[in-house]
Amino acid sequence: MQFRVKDFDDAIHEKWLALTIPQPEADYICKPVCQRNDGSWAACKTSMELPFKTAYRGDILIVSSGSKYPSVHPSGATIGLVMIDSIERLENGLYLWRFSDPRMVVPFPAKGPRTKLWPYVCPKGEVTEYPRLIRLD
Length: 137
What we know:
The chain is mostly beta strands. The chain has one helix and eight strands; from the N terminus they run E-H-E-E-E-E-E-E-E. The protein starts with 12 loop residues before the first strand and ends in a 14-residue tail after the last strand.
């Protein structure tokens, strides 16, 4: 459940920086598809051009927005975590954001602007990662 920033209480809430990305790009950035030799995971898409930059480096929560295929991709929901590694200015005036460490999370309804990073306030423990690998004996 999403709360307003002014209702944030450190004892019962946690705050994430979130980025709203349209589908299916949000899935391509968040879903780990292969494990590298160093043990890290990679997604289909590791970078994205956006019209803004930030000095923040670290984990951000990816929220999906509208999809052409609503039955396949969740819309208006938290779907994953990624780490911002770097942001470079391009000649066309956009910024290239580079992501790493993709992780899927249990989806929860979320809404926020698509033009900037925004604070997502939720109950502690709501953002739960799915396991990346399950081994059965």
